[in-house]
Amino acid sequence: MPINIDSLSEADLIDLNRRVVERLRLLQQMRAHTQMLAFRVGDRVSFQADGHGPIEGMLTRYNRRTVTVITDDGHQWNVSPSLLSKAVPATGTGVRPQGRSNVIPLK
After folding, report:
1. Considering 12, 21, 77, 82, which has the largest number of Cβ atoms within 10 A of its Cβ?
2. Domain spans of the chain?
3. 3-class DSSP assignment, residue 36
4. What are the tens digits of pLDDT across the range 42-52?
């Protein structure tokens, strides 16, 4: 559906611009929401921040376009879900895999 913008008035162009920007924001929010669904609050996640090495922490909150991650040393990061990956605990770190209980059965 091509639109001939040469025939539009200034007011029409401003209105069209506003509608395009709103639509782009909606599409970006839908994409971020879809990416957020890959993670749950409490998941261990990692990401690469500019000027830092890989950062690992726990996802604590969903925001409008980002998620909040708190690292083991207490720093808080608001991160786009597209930058996250699920953290794989290293052997012997004491971090339990998701879904495993820390209850010891008694005999």
Report:
1. 77
2. 10-86
3. helix
4. 999 999 988 88
